[in-house]
Amino acid sequence: MKLGIVFACIITISASLIILQSFESDDIFHTYLDKSVPFVGANIPRLEGIDGNGIKIAIIDTGVDFNHPDLFGWGPDGKVIGGYNFIQEGTPPLDTNGHGTQVAGVIAADGQLIGVAPKAKILAYKVSENGEAVSSDLIIKAIDKAIEDGADIINISLGVNKTNASIEHAVNRALAKNIFVVTAAGNDGPMPQTIGSPGKNYGSVTVGATYNNLTSSLVATLEVNEKPYTVIPMVGSSKLNEPIVSKIIFGGYGKEKDLKDINTTDSILLVERGSDIKGELLYFSTKEKNAVNAGAKALIVYNNEPGIFLGELIHEFVESDYKPQIPVVSIDRKDGLEIKESLQEKNKAILHLFYNPDFVAHFSSRGPVSPFYIKPDILAPGVYINTTQINGGYNVTSGTSFAAPHVSGAVALLLEKYPNMHHHEIKSLLMTTSAPVSDAYGQKFSLSDSGSGRLDIAKAFQAKLIITPPNFVINLSSDNPTTQKQLELKLLGGTLENLEVRFEGPEFIQFTHVLEGNNLLIKIKILGQNYGEHEGRIIINHNEVKYTIPFLIHYTEGSISVNQKEGKLNFTIHHPEQWSFAKISVINSIDGKTETVTATPEKDASIRVNENAEYWVYAKIKVNGKTFDAYNTIEVNSINDNNQSEFELLNIPEKQIAIVLGIVIIIGIVGVIAIRRTVTNEV
Question: Are the CB atoms for 388 and 109 separated by under 8 Å?
């Protein structure tokens, strides 16, 4: 078995955040599934008797503990009706790590804890023993086995930080069988472009994480001289009734001696993690007590190594009577050093700690993964989730690994209600009815952070309108600032009378619409030279349900036009100024296969394509030493499979064919020369 690309399992597999937070008496810690499940509206389907009955959900993970009382039973009459153990073939896929059992509990626990779809059945595919790594081969085998076993839904809370074409193909095979595939976004946030495979897959539903409920959603914000920074509350910190506004003072490592000769009264103290003495244990609780004694209002601890971290004030080594008195947050080392170097006598900082259940979790991986589509697709609770654990236990855990199964459970409920609905339509119901999420300043999170918003099962069940696509990307340029987009509206009940449509977005985006039958035709125009990326939202009200269709606009100074003829894509570059060179990439939307070609003003460019698909075209245009981006898409549907060459049917790239043929020719020539020499010598 090829180990090839090794997959790091999301959150508890590679970056588990088992978080236990202590609150003051008025902030009691309740984080059971009976909080997150109603929070996403799963109680509404149950009023109709919808609980996931008859739906089979494949969990590709570390197995499932089918001896757990909330997940009890192996075989046709149990909760776990089947699956496969790829680690120890011939034995049931029993979980000895815990990650897969935690995922299964969120989806279908039916005991002390109640999952989103408690009557759904589970197919468990064990692809990792210790939860640390799993080969891409096993992921692929598990997906194919789930297809063979007739899964309705596949949940994959595993991933890598890059694209894996083989995994993408496997996911596409499942989608082609109308199997709904749910993938976790990953836990490499908050930096952009951190979603990997299979979360990158165009057709799957990629899930990011929000907080859980009002008692377990402590988030923090920091501004220094009006510049925002990402900070994480340390375990044990409490909310603030109002922001702390003060200056920041640097205090070394936060030791008593570091603070002795500086005035920190009423300040926000900035210190470095760790100690200046090798091997010395300097707890965050100690730094906090020293800061309190020095009169500081709050404490910021920057990392002593690259990246951000989750710190704990309350831990097993702390004094039993210790109680934090001021808020303490952690910050990335780079940001911490930046603040330290910029400190002046008149610096002004604003620190706030507050509850927000729809705040995007700091660890949740972000997009974009492509200029041509939006990821993540949706968010769900993924912080402080109390779920099932191996050996009959329960534990609190965090990660997009546990956001994804909330969505898998929601899909099970919708499939029970609409058994013949296509996965694209279910995806639309979930995404267009999701709840909007806003940051600490009341601004909506970007699409690359939050996708369509947080899962709202209740609204999805109330919906009578399927809108496709549920989001989209459009490409405009200086020579083509206008486009028209068609949204297909499919009724599940009622009529399209009294349909209300409005637009949310920048004022320089001109938006008009008209309803023609079951199609909503929208026209978008950019006014002025507002080059860059712009987000907008189409809001549709129908039968007292609000639907939101977000979109992203690329408005570029240059452009690339494309036309097809006899299996070839032909390209033309445009730019207001004289351009010198362009590199053009063409991506097959089905499998992500990419071909590149170059163009100059004197040389046109073209690429041959071998199958019907939507192709994404991306150009980097050189103008006077600067590079400008341009985008386009084209749908190819004129290629006849019967006209494909044998090489194309074998899916052998033309370049490889040419190389092989070249080698064969060279070998042939050398062989002929050798034979002639041999004949000459014999003569």
Answer: yes
